What does this fold into?
Amino acid sequence: MNCTRVQDSFIDYQDGTLPPDESAALRAHLASCPTCQREWSALQEMSRKLDTLAAAPEPGPRLRENFYAMLETHQREADAPSPFALARSRIDRFFAALLPAQPALQFAFALALLIGGLFAGQHYLAPKPVVTTDDSAKKELAALKAQVDSMGQLVTYSLLQQQTTSDRLQTVLAKMDLKSPDRKVLTDLVGALAFDPSINVRLSAVEVLAQHTDDSIVRAGVLSALPRERAPLVQVAMIELLADAREQNALPVFEKISRDEALDVNVRDAARRALASLRTPTTRPETTNPSVTQSTTVKPVLT
It folds into this structure.
């Protein structure tokens, strides 16, 4: 057996589903091949680390109660009579009498207002100076962003719990044959890459997204999810995707990863190779679309 065949059989060998003759051949190859021994050791180490990961916290029991309490409060406020109802009705009647009733006349009136507004804005309105937010406002905005991000992760986790890992994996793989997926499909794939707890699902999401790196939302989503990724196999796949897509915005992230001694050595090496690739001018002809790249096949490893 060659190294590629052996490494492709690691998962079946680990699960005990590899035929006896192939298992014996794999063990014999491992005994004499340092490269496959390193790959096998890395797989075992990652398996041990995944087994020791703490389960993600489940939403608290008061989450549903707080939601319905908030919903009831908003419903009461909506049903309460508005103190401005009388004034609003008079204003509505005034504009109903002022504006024309026929659609054609309404369109002409709106077009005239638009042209007049553009003319007035161009000739009479000066640009307003940009107001710089102070430190306290910046801190409040940062805290608000953190709360929104935390709530987004909680909602995503709750939705993921409604499906099994196999169902989520099949959902991602079903999008592999789509030639021109819409923006929602690409956003869902980026969300699976960023939040799904299964390595298999995240690896499959990288493989599908690698086919659509010509879309800016794909490159931006992968780049945004890379710093939060902790699985070395997924990290390497994401780095290779961004390098193949010639994503220059990834250079600072690759620099940081290449110097982070806490990360896996294979991840740091992949970041260094990506830095060298992005810093080397491309030699492809002008007619070639540099954003269209060949996707790297990534085999699912562990759930």
Summary: Residues 136 and 142 are 10 Å apart (CA to CA).
